[in-house]
Automatic annotation (TrEMBL):
The chain crosses the membrane at residues 16-37. Residues 79-93 have a biased composition (Low complexity). Keywords: Membrane, Transmembrane, Transmembrane helix. This is DUF3558 domain-containing protein. Residues 58-95 are annotated as: Disordered. It comes from Streptomyces antimycoticus. It comes from the Bacteria.
Length: 234
């Protein structure tokens, strides 16, 4: 009768165990690579919304007192009941990645006549960035205005202190002889919340009034923004 197979010694069993362990390690490494490549590992970074909340109507917390103190009042709704343009106007959108809100208000000098076509438009937007940090690109977004120049106008961008984590004001410099207005943007970032308020003013040639200077408009926007941002946390 032929002899049977030799018994397996301890050395052979050890090699089999090591090969099995090595295969498991390789498989784990490959699987980890797949997870990283496909986004299987969740990003643990949570959005820093700094206490701000989504509002369906951004006009509710928008503070207009500084403009009223400066001699402006909201224009009445114009047109018939079926075609009237509401003032103020607002819109909003809530999304898993980004919440956006807008409020547009049309002002006029207090006590102005029907023949006075002077107006101030206040455009306000606020966004809650819930997936992407807007910080790294925020300043560059507004610095880009400095590259927008023509023969009659240019933009000046300056940092503003006392609002959020960072804030900038964009002032339009217009050398045209027919310039009868002012255009100023105030932008604020607080955590992953971004806010922009724009002052756009036009003074008609028939008006007895005059446009605010960019510096005066900036101060009004700053006062409004400070109060508005506080209300957006309530």
């Amino acid at each position: 009768m032929p002899p049977g197979p030799p018994p397996t010694g301890p050395g052979g069993g050890g090699k089999g165990w090591l090969w099995g362990l090595g295969g498991a390690v390789v498989a784990s490494a490959v699987w980890a690579g797949v997870l990283f490549a496909t986004g299987g590992f969740e990003d643990e970074t949570k959005a820093d919304l700094a206490g701000y909340r989504y509002r369906t109507n951004l006009c509710t917390p928008t503070d207009t007192q500084p403009f009223e103190d400066a001699g402006y009042e909201q224009k009445d709704e114009s047109g018939s009941s079926s075609t009237s343009t509401s003032n103020p106007q607002h819109s909003s959108s809530e999304n898993a990645a980004l919440d956006s809100m807008t409020c547009n208000i049309d002002f006029e000098p207090s006590g102005s006549s029907s023949s006075d076509y002077s107006s101030v438009w206040l455009y306000t937007t606020a966004s809650l960035h819930k997936k992407t940090n807007p910080g790294p690109e925020f300043e560059a977004q507004y610095r880009s205005y400095e590259d927008q120049k023509t023969s009659t106008y240019s933009y000046e961008v300056s940092p503003v202190s006392g609002l959020g984590d960072e804030a900038y004001v964009v002032k339009q410099n217009n050398s045209s002889s027919s310039n009868n207005g002012a255009y100023v943007i105030l932008a604020v970032r607080d955590g992953w919340m971004t806010y922009q308020s724009t002052w756009s003013q036009y003074v008609s040639s028939s008006s007895n009034g005059s446009a605010k200077t960019p510096e005066e408009a900036t101060e009004l926007l700053k006062k409004s923004a400070k109060a508005t941002l506080e209300k957006m946390k309530e």
